[in-house]
Predict the 3D structure of the following.
Amino acid sequence: MKIIYRYPSKIERELSHIKSFISLFNDFKILDWKRKNPPCPDFVINTKDLIIGLEVTTIMHEKSNNPSLASIRAAQNKCFIKAQKLAESSNIPPLDVKAKFVSDSRFVDADFAAKELYNFVVNKLPDIPEQGVLDIKNKELTYFDWIRIRRSEENDWYRLHVYVSKINPTEEISKALANKQAKYSEYLNCCDKCWLLIGIDEWTAPEAFNVNEDLDFTFKCDFERVFFLHNITDKLVELKIEK
């Protein structure tokens, strides 16, 4: 069964993506698959006649005039993980906490932000209704300007919203292909053919993408087949390629 993680590690994301791929791919029967280590592709898929290598990667949209959005998002995610662990270790009642950062393009001190968020929520415990949501827009905190809290059966602390771009990510896909193309010949030492799977999880991928149905662009690479996976919606698209 596929699991979509809120804050996935690289391995967790790759496993989630290949499980989605296996469930959505229906061109022919896949007998089984195994995880591999470099210099092999991430996975090998066994079919009746072939061993197919499947390399898995994720694309990220980073604005040239901003610091690394990937690093910023990683620090933001760490902040929520730390804040939730503080809440659990303090045995406060389970809460669903969503918080919006003042800026999505500003570096975050994860330790400071986690304590700031945790302390703010703890101070608001008496104000949280038994039913419904406590919404607070606060201009006094260093990192957060909107926090939404409700009582829950388990703790879940995360970002209030996700930014979705309004463009097709042809440039970012091309960059990902160029990066993986350099390793293509090594991948073939482990398989008969090698495919590439490019995937995103919309609530975790920095600057996630909204991919149009009519993505009509021909990419250049030596991979036999290239797929784009929108993991949350279970949408798998095969991209047009030429050698």
Observations:
- The chain has two domains: 10-61+165-242, 69-159.
